[in-house]
């Protein structure tokens, strides 16, 4: 696979969904050449199998894997297993999707693209990646599986693969990333960054299972000899070479909860709302031992799901990390989330509990304003979103959590863009009032200005 220094080039290719598929592939060939391309594809397979890429990054990755071998005469490629496995995962989720809005859409674009690769020559090379995803997900046509029997493709792939025998056929990777069962999760809203991948994950280390060892020969003891229990225990260490077992203390043993229990609750919170008793158990664990948040598999990639389903739990988890250096990663994830009542609620609770960095607050507000402008919703729904954000921003201004003058240009432009919304006018008047007060204080006089609706 690629080494740590080569990863940024690969992620630069994957992180630009505004480009067409063809442009992404050309960029891949420009940045990654020769034998690097096979290692890059192996890295892509690792990222895909571990569900570390966002939806658009996955689409670009599969297109690169397809296009790189499209002109080959071979009937299969070294990466067919990842493609076939992903088709099965997509089909499983689409067939078992509940009535939640957009649940099957999480896999719709990927499923269509992969099945098209197997049965025809796709014609999306000139189309921007993001536009392709939006069009497929917006289509009201039912999702159909053009492959009647995918087992035939699996059998063909197995026939072309080299046969492994002995311990290598049952070996395991040396590095196992701690995460939830990926078959139960949709692609994360924000893919992993190159800095989030450990160097050891990129090494092709494998180890076979342990072989059975002969039973140690038990030494005979003469009658009358003192029994040395310490040496008797040390004699067995050779059964596990290089490892001296030590006790692992479970400090939560008498507190009414265990680390695996809280980890299971976190996994559930990422997928669905928790019950009241489950929420109380999670909050009690965090209150007794705030450090437990670092031992239950919490990652920035899980934050969007927890905010969507359990905003109160998201706040408690973030609050436990506010005084650690890891909180910046979660701030970045919160800034990049989709604007929703739950997102604003979590931010509001967090800002009332701790003093947030000003730069984080500014980035969060700018992102919300940008989403309001670029929202594909109809005017009624978009105005509702703008009104929700304006009410939130008025509360931020009232509590003096930001200096409005530092964002004067962005806020003023936003208010003018949505002059038909009453709450946007209120923010504009507040901005003008602060400006006039500042002019009076500095002796510059109070200027006359109009609201954006006048």
The rough form would be described as globular
Strand content: under 5%
What is the number of E strands? Answer: 2
Helix content: 40-55%
Radius of gyration: 28 Å
Strand order of the largest sheet: 1-2
Report the span from N to C terminus. Answer: 61 Å
Structural category:
mainly alpha
Largest sheet, in brief, is: 2 strands, antiparallel
The helix/strand series, from N terminus to C terminus, equals HHHHHHHHEEHHHHHHHHHHH
Indicate the low-confidence ranges by residue numbers.
98-103, 445-449
Number of helices: 19
Mean pLDDT: 78
Outline:
The protein is mainly α and 454 residues long. The protein has helices at residues 7-14, 21-31, 36-49, 55-68, 80-95, 105-119, 129-138, 151-160, 229-234, 259-269, 276-288, 303-309, 311-320, 327-335, 341-353, 358-374, 379-398, 408-417, 422-442, and strands spanning 172-173, 206-207. Strands 1-2 form a two-stranded antiparallel ribbon.
